[in-house]
Amino acid sequence: MAISTNSDRQIQELQTLIKGIDYGMLTTVNDDGSLHSCPMHSIDELDTDGTLWFFTSANSHRVSEIEHNQQVNVSFTSSQNQRYISISGTAQLLQDRQKMAELWKPELQTWFSQGLNEPDLALLKVSIKQADYWDSRSSYHPQHINLS
Amino acid sequence: MAISTNSDRQIQELQTLIKGIDYGMLTTVNDDGSLHSCPMHSIDELDTDGTLWFFTSANSHRVSEIEHNQQVNVSFTSSQNQRYISISGTAQLLQDRQKMAELWKPELQTWFSQGLNEPDLALLKVSIKQADYWDSRSSYHPQHINLS
């Protein structure tokens, strides 16, 4: 069932859906066309224009994959709530110190021990084009959120 | 850290990792290159040659995507055990009645109400090439299982 509300409400709905899910699985495309995923710590916030942010190391393998192919998927799973969310979008790497300071959360120190002073700390900006979700209410058929 | 054991042990290890996780998120590539994922009920069994099986409807959108591009990723998430698994492989559709009867589980009736008599019931065969996993022991760096 397509949701025909405006973009703001759809983003708010998506924000509510992913809230409290600590990790998203980011899927990227390798040069040989194979698909790989890895857990990304969620900072639990969506920009009002439909952007997801993750902290990453600028030298990681996933970043070199994204430089070759920007298409990504981020899935969020809450088995407790029987909720499964697929977010399709494009990703780009940003080393914007101001944005990093704005988004930084203390728990990220687990992966980036030097915090905001980590030399190759970077942001992954995921511009959301479409989201689909399944939950205990929707059963087999997904609900769609279209932001493109 | 690469695990240098033989293929049988690696498949057994992967089997142990995904055991008890009810759903995997299957990511496929759309014709326009965008990536989409959807929850697939896990039948909790890996073939000894490194094959994952899922029941699907032969007419679903994900199947038409796979007919155009066989590359898929299946991710399994257990937030309780802080375990995140990425399985990279290729998928194909099979309508093998004998294999379906062998793999069928009663809980699948939730999605396929007519059971094995469901007209467009089919199997998705995922041939695993590589798996990576992260858990509370491995922290930021994944463990690799290579089956190709």
Instruction: Provide the number of structural domains of chain A.
Output: 1
Low confidence ranges of chain A? none
Report the largest inter-chain contact. A-B, 31 and 31 residues
Largest sheet of chain A: 7 strands, antiparallel
Number of strands of chain A: 7
Number of helices of chain A: 3
CATH level-two architecture of chain A: Roll
Q: Kindly, what is the distance between the CA atoms of the first and last residues of chain A, rounded to a whole number of angstroms?
A: 17 Å
State the oligomer. Answer: homodimer
Shape estimate of chain A:
globular
Instruction: Compute the CA-based radius of gyration of chain A.
Output: 15 Å
Q: Could you name the CATH topology of chain A? A: Pnp Oxidase, Chain A
User: Can you say what the CATH homologous superfamily of chain A is?
Assistant: Electron Transport, Fmn-binding Protein, Chain A
How much helicity do the residues of chain A have? Answer: 10-25%
Give the SSE order of chain A as H and E letters.
HEEEHEEHEE
What value does the average pLDDT of chain A take?
Answer: 90
Protein name (chains A, B): Pyridoxamine 5'-phosphate oxidase-like FMN-binding protein
Pfam families (chains A, B): Pyrid_ox_like
Domain General stress protein FMN-binding split barrel (chains A, B): 10-139
InterPro entries (chains A, B): Split_barrel_FMN-bd (IPR012349), Stress-Dev_Protein (IPR052917), YdaG_split_barrel_FMN-bd (IPR038725)
